[in-house]
């Protein structure tokens, strides 16, 4: 070894990976996972699972997997919100139909 050349175990060793810029960490979208708990809890298990996998995938170098996990957590939260809105609308329509039927059944002919 030459004295002015850093070795692989020295703290001043520079590798090619030191110069590669890593893309930014995708958002974990834990808020959307929490929304899944509130609006449609069966999807919350998958949403939190994907949300919690974002950082480990990104740290291990699987950038596409981290982005997919982030996007999936967000989409599951949005799906749960959409299911809640649709079910709420169906409940309102059901109550309107029941009330209209009850009112029309009590009228004398």
Task: Write up what this structure looks like.
With 109 residues, the chain is an all-alpha fold. The chain has helices spanning 30-39, 42-59, 63-106. The chain has one domain. It contains 3 helices and no strands. The longest helix is centred in the C-terminal third of the chain and has 44 residues, at 63-106. The mean pLDDT is 87.
Q: What is the β-strand count?
A: 0
**Distance between the terminal alpha carbons, to the nearest Å?**
108 Å
The H-and-E topology, N to C, reads as HHH
Q: Given the structure, what is the number of helices?
A: 3
Question: What are the segments in which pLDDT stays under 50 over at least 5 consecutive residues?
Answer: none
**How many discrete structural domains?**
1
What general form does the structure show?
A: rod-shaped
**How much of the residues is beta strand, in percent?**
under 5%
Q: What is the SS-derived class?
A: mainly alpha
The helix fraction, in percent, is: 55-70%
Question: Please, what is the average pLDDT?
Answer: 87
Q: How can the largest sheet be summarized?
A: none
C-alpha Rg (nearest Å) = 27 Å
